[in-house]
Write a structure and sequence with these properties.
Number of strands: 2
Radius of gyration: 20 Å
Helix content: over 70%
Largest sheet: 2 strands, parallel
Order of helices and strands: HHHHHHHHHHHHHHEHHHEH
Structural class: mainly alpha
Strand order of the largest sheet: 1-2
Amino acid sequence: MMSTVLMYLLFAVPLLGGASSLKWKFSSVAFSLVNVILAVLIFFNPPPVGAFFVDDVSKVFVVMNASITFIVMLYSTEYIKDGIVKEGWYYLLFMIYSDAIYGVVTINNLGLVWASLEASTALTVILVAYEKDNVTMEATWRYLVIVSMGVSIAFVSIILFYYDLHTLTLTSMIGRGEVSPITVAASLLGLLGFGTKAGIFPGYTWLPDAHTEAPATVSSSFSAVLVPSAAVVVYRIWEIAPFMTEYFLVLSGFSVLTASLMMARQKYFKRLFAYSTLENVNIGLIGLIVGQPLGALILFFTHAFGKTAAFLSSGVYMERLNTKKIEDVEKVGLSYPTSTSLFLASLAVTGTPPFGTFVGELLIFTTLFHVSVPLLIVLLTSAGIAFVSVNYHVTRMVKPREEKAYSGILGYISLASAILSLLVGLIAIGVVQ
């Protein structure tokens, strides 16, 4: 009973925090901190299966969402000013959006999961367009059209699943899919539809544009929480019909390869990190599918803090240097702590030991060796390209020809997130050993 009450509180607190933030923006920080505590309690005491389905995957994602939301809200109080809407509405929309993410990863009904994911799109359209210039509005339009199309395809998938299985309760659907034209069609449409939001080829084209133009805080949450949470929904689709494994692995593998190739030629640092998200999330999804949940969850969790540090550091560079280009920062960069945060973040998201991404990828690749050697070769090649590309570009940024001093709180918040990603890695090494 108490665990169920905690779940309802988890959903209620962001609504209260968002409403309070209309009058006092620091309410979002206080209420999101409360949610971190609730998330940790739920991790150790998940509710019984019923309206909610909180398995090991969901527990990690609940803590992940709460933690990243707290970091982002803290950063936002110094970073966000009035944009396309008043500042208070930014906090309200963001907190409700974080609520939608809880729904995506915990509700035990595929239809309501779809509704939560669709709500996350509606709520974040204004957040992506927050800075309201022409380029931002174009990126927002692409985000809205492409993701809405994907979610519409996913809705057709849900209809087909219901027609075939006569239920949308996830715990009743998992493992029940049979080799039939309807189930095959539903699975493929679910992969394509939900995969659009999860950064899976071919629907991932919205992601680099939205990440590049959205405020750094929004980009952080997109990469750390939204895209991985959508990947969890794709994983649920696979759990319903695991005989479709080849299709899921092929599309995810191709997504990793194309994303890594795009990193090598990037000129904009936020776009670089957006493609890195595609690579990491798809490797994590592959880990879940091939039966390596521990490696996948370590990867997702470490990536969340590392990528948050990367985008929050990028926000400082954009604010202080008024540029999004790597070559501009190569000429004139920033000092500690922001440069250190960016460097640590690049190591975290590229699988450098002892960061947790290295541990997670190692576990996934070891398992994949027994499943598909060709796919393993693709992922190893892609990971190598991504490692060289990201760290080459970031090294250019943190070793500029000229350096401007900056020691503001925003740099230290992003540095703290980067250090957390390192600590997660050290803990993960201890757990694996």
